[in-house]
Structures
1.
Amino acid sequence: MNRIALLAAGCAALALAACDHPDAARQRAEAQLKAVSKLDCPAAQGELTRVSAAADGQSCVYSAEGAEVTLRIVPLAGGDAASALAPLETELKALLPPKAPTTPSATSSGPDGEGESVNIHLPGVSIEANDSNARVKVAGGVNIDADDDRAEVRVMRDGEDDTGRRHRDDGVQATFILASDDSTSAWKVAGYEARGPRGGPLVVATVKAKARDHDGHDLFDDMKALIRHNVGGRPRHGAIVID
């Protein structure tokens, strides 16, 4: 199976593993999140070193070799988390613009069997992948869109199911990752990690990095730690690896 199909299957499996399990109720009870009005920005977190902090406590900036992380407060102002985070996604996408589309290869997933493809539709999971791209959707707010040179991962959990009914009490948790080895930009990874109570505000850490693998260290782990330092909650286990 080609690497795009493997990415699709692996991400779907990870997303399903993150769904509720028998111990989820206890973990949610331990994960009550705080509503913050000002950030507490420690001098360092992991490989990140604080380089500036706004006087009003609404943002601070950290750096690591080849990377920059900004921690900020994002109010919901009565809206939903997706709408509040949309401007950040637009800002991050501008850092890694997609390449101009090319004509699909004649050997890409043809009826003669020259290409490989995956087309799976199960309750809560949809995977469509071939030699050049993959589209994965998992119930609960997980979407992956990947091709040979660019991958976009979005995870949004806001305590409601697709019918609008409450089914979790652990607030809003969102992840957005863009990665590209072929980008003409100096940045190869851009994304955010966000967390906060359902009524807001959210504490959001955005990152831009010049390499996918930052000396073997996951910058997203440091970002999550900064967020937990402010809003509380249990660590989120697992990571989506884009290879």
2.
Amino acid sequence: MLVLHAVWSLPDFAEQAVGLAAMTLVLGLVARPVLDFRVRRWAPTVLIGAGIFVIWIVPDLLFPNYRHSPLFENVVLGTARNPLSEAARRDPAVLAMRMLRAAVIVPVAEELFWRGWMMRWMIDADFRRVPLGAYTTTSFWTVALLFAAEHGPYWDVGLAAGIIFNLWMVRTKSLGDLILAHAITNGCLSAYVIAAGKWEYWL
């Protein structure tokens, strides 16, 4: 989807609709047999999700130019920029789809990939033999670092989030708890993006 976007730009509504539909379809067709939304620890999971949201925005609130140093914005990491057009920012349907993708679809996809698969695959290529939440130093820190790298100029808060999410998976051994925590973080962040006009958080 990212490669296609770079070479073939769709109108705002179509781009959000296609992205949301494609991700939902893939998860429904491919991942459905392994999805488990049971939450074992509701209260701490919600608090963790909200806490990571706070960690995400605090550096920029305390230090307004913090994100624009070469440590965060460079040719490797990219820049924290507004990904939405002026028209998209005024379109409730576009914003609703973007928020739905961030708060519902992305948490499922990312938790399946990072903590449902990669943390286990790094322990044993036949990852199905490895229980959720299994810990090795290599798998834990590799996933945390790659999760940080995925977030480009927000790698520092991405690293903090990756470490906390990894720890919570080791503790709960529950995909449902991780999906909920991630959904709370992304939902809060999406609401903040729209309310405060901090569009750059939607990289």
3.
Amino acid sequence: MNTTQYVGDFRSGRELWGGRFAAVAALVAFGMLFSASGARAGCAMPYQPAAPFVTPHAPDDSFGGDRDPGATIVGLWHLNYTATYDNNFPPGHAVAPPFPFLESYKTWHADGTEFENAFLPPAGGNICFGVWKDMGHGTVKLHHVGLMFDSSGAVSNVFTVDETDTVSPSGKTYSGTFDFKLFGPTDVYGTGTPISEVKGTTSGTRISVD
């Protein structure tokens, strides 16, 4: 399994997404199908782009400095998720961490909602939503929920992502931790026993207008 980028590649029997990974895994049933190169659906699913098209995160050494009063998580960000723990994801084909888990664009809104657009094909369910609250001192807590789909377009799985993130004093970057959990299609709120779980770290770089 290719762990230099994103761990898997979900596709239907007609290979909707095309092969972009080295590993091959058999299709398995329980709603979501995992195929030739792992999992690829929903905005929490890892994805291997054909080539990098966003510059890597620039280091931000300002965590030890004075906090900018305007340093807030509200705004648009480029995110990288790195897995440090994997319990049965993709189901039956877990990958040994650490590995890059996901890349996305994320918008944090001032009203306490959040929107994420993952680097995944739109047909894979790459749009997800969340709610967040301010914990003080630049730290926020997020609860995020999304859907995955099978080859017929039916909902195959529900997933949640819980994050705790801290914005740097400069307001240009943030970092934190995430906990991704995968559930069956009827567990709408993601409160039951998860099928799979991945934990790791987040790294965000603000996208701003000149």
4.
Amino acid sequence: MKVLITGGTGLLGKALLESCSSRIEIIATYFGNYCMQDNDQVKYVKLDIRDKNGYINLFKDYKPEMTVHTAGIGSPDFAEKNKELVSQINLGGTKSIIENCERFNSKFIFISSNGIYDGRNAPYAEEDKAEPVNYYGIIKLKGEEITKKATIPAIIVRPILMYGWHYLFERSNIMTQSISKLQKGEIVYAYDDVYVNPLLNINCAASIWKIVNENKIGDYNIGGADRVSIHQFVSKAAKIFNLNEALVVPVQQGFFNELVERPRDTSLKTAKMENELGIKPLTLDDGLIFVRETQK
């Protein structure tokens, strides 16, 4: 099977490439000031998601049977400050990819977000109403809407806050950022009024590959087993990595002078993930221990 992965060097893209079966041939696009080396299974192409002609030529030459669209900007504050740019990338890029999927007959997986929910009625199942509270969530929801109108088989995957090892040249996540600070003896301020069920990137990738391999269709909320505050999450990471938990200081929204509101609790129900995909959500302990034991 030929699979195209956009955003192939991001946290989820990296996990997808590290966990794919040997029978899958992958082309992975990325956009950054670095060069990736091809291997026997993966071919990398540096390509801006806004480059419509570039993607038309890529689809024409490669003819992917499945496209997993992970590329996009993931910061709510950046989205609020750069609405036009984020719309071009997160929404315009998604439209372009779907058009190519339709033209070249590729199935499509859109990576959405828990950010489509308002945080007032957690935990959220796939059929629960989406009511985003910031521009980032609004754009993700619009991406879902155009995905549902696609004329090819399309799937929506909503991962919650992900953690895991990222490429050093890519954006850090809350776990790696916090561990780095704690290792230097720095204080880490973390929300004690924002709740999620954190998701190991490898666990999310396993869910996506199950969708691909079993030709699933529909919406899937993907999360971990434990609902915790961000403060509890970072404190647990400190404990697992034998770092000073006292340096993890609880704060509430507003402490960082955020531009936009974060939903208070977007923890996700994982029944569909478990029952239809057969993927067991990892406990926070198990996920963080895995991360600790696989550090390079």
